[in-house]
Each structure stands twice: as C-alpha cells, then as structure tokens.
Amino acid sequence: MSSTSTSHSTFSSHRVYPVSPAELFSAFSQADRKRRWFVEGEGWQVDEFVVDFRPGGSERSSFRFEGGASFSNDTTYLDIVPDRRIVFAYVMATEGKPFSASLATIEFVPEGEGTRLVYSEQAAYLDSDNADAQTADRKAGWAELLEALARHLDETAG
C-alpha cells in the first residue's frame, strides 16, 4: 500500500553578497550563468537544462549524482521584477515521480555596497509525513546552492 500523505512547511533563508542587485539578479536570469552554479558541480551529470526566463516561462533541469537516480526540477516563473524579485513554482521528482511542489520567492534587497538575497519557500512534500526532515533537507540544499552562487560570483568578479 502506497502512502498518499502530504506534509507542508514554510521556511526562509537569507545571505548578503558583495555585488549589486543587478549583478546578483543576472546570475539567475542568464541561463549560462545559472547553469554553472545551479546544476553543475563535482560528481553531477546534467542531462538537461533549458530556461525561458520570463513571467509565464519555464525552466527544466534533469541531473544525477555519480550516475545514480535521475532528479528533475520543473519550474514555472510567475512574476519577475528585474533586480528586485523572482516568484516561481517548482516540482521536484526522482525517476519521474514527483516528491515535492513549492512556491518560492527570491528578493534582492540593496544592503550597503551589496545585496541581501531573501529566499522564501512554501513546500508540499508528497507521500511524506515528516515535514521537519524534508524541510531540513530542503533548507540544506538551498544553503548549498547559495554557497555555490557565492563561489560563482567570486569566480566572475573583476
């Protein structure tokens, strides 16, 4: 018997980057830049990465770690205000089976000579009754992505 439960959570994370809102926004809006920090990395195989960055547009990525199971991320962009905000919905799946659906907002807030990125997410974890563990994993995943973004910005600075 398979589970049909759904658990929910809301969380937010923030980080200050030493770049302008426009520079930080471009790391999300330019597909070649986003691919480098969002889906590439040691041990990761990128099977697909296609982006149509506009309100109503979509993003699809498919990837696997060290030849393991296939993961996918299907995103729909709902609202984009250049250099200020991105609102999107996304579904994550393993081997084609969805395991979460989320609504997320990224805000770019000027702070001193840099920018505070504020990430907020409302998530539904499918066939799961442990939102705490799922949320901890999701927050850790986004912390890793925000660190990869910081490395990407360091590499492209100057």
TrEMBL record:
InterPro entries: ASHA1/2-like_C, START-like_dom_sf
Taxonomy, superkingdom: Bacteria
Annotated Pfam families: AHSA1
Activator of Hsp90 ATPase homologue 1/2-like C-terminal domain mapped to chain residues: 19-153
Similarity-based family: Belongs to the AHA1 family.
Protein name in the entry: Uncharacterized protein YndB with AHSA1/START domain
Natural source organism: Aminobacter niigataensis
